[in-house]
Design goal:
Layout lengths: L1 H73 L2 H12 L14
């Protein structure tokens, strides 16, 4: 009878040990799942920021190209003539000026 009681006690203690190990493994799995979802959320946020920054870079590159083209245009004689006409009132040869009467 003593042997059967010890055998039952061993079975019970091994069952409790197995149950504790199963609970620990389940908890670790749950924690890893939660961490994975948190990391994925951060990844999605960073990915969206990355895409926004890439779009900004493309816009700035296009703007830089426009500025370069405008810089080349500003150095031409045509630009100088336009500015002289607009700001200084320069009149080309053969042009007629009409003024409004108030």
């Amino acid at each position: 009878m003593a042997r059967t009681a010890m055998a039952k006690k061993r079975k019970r203690s091994s069952f409790i040990g197995f149950l504790l190990v199963a609970i620990v493994v389940a908890l670790i799995t749950i924690i890893i799942g939660i961490q994975k979802s948190a990391v994925k959320a951060k990844y999605d946020v960073y990915n969206a920021e990355d895409q926004a920054l890439e779009a900004q870079i493309e816009e700035q590159m296009a703007r830089a190209e426009e500025i370069d083209e405008y810089e080349k245009y500003v150095q031409t004689k045509a630009y100088a003539g336009e500015q002289a006409q607009e700001k200084l009132g320069l009149v080309k040869e053969g042009e007629i000026i009409f003024k409004k009467d108030n």
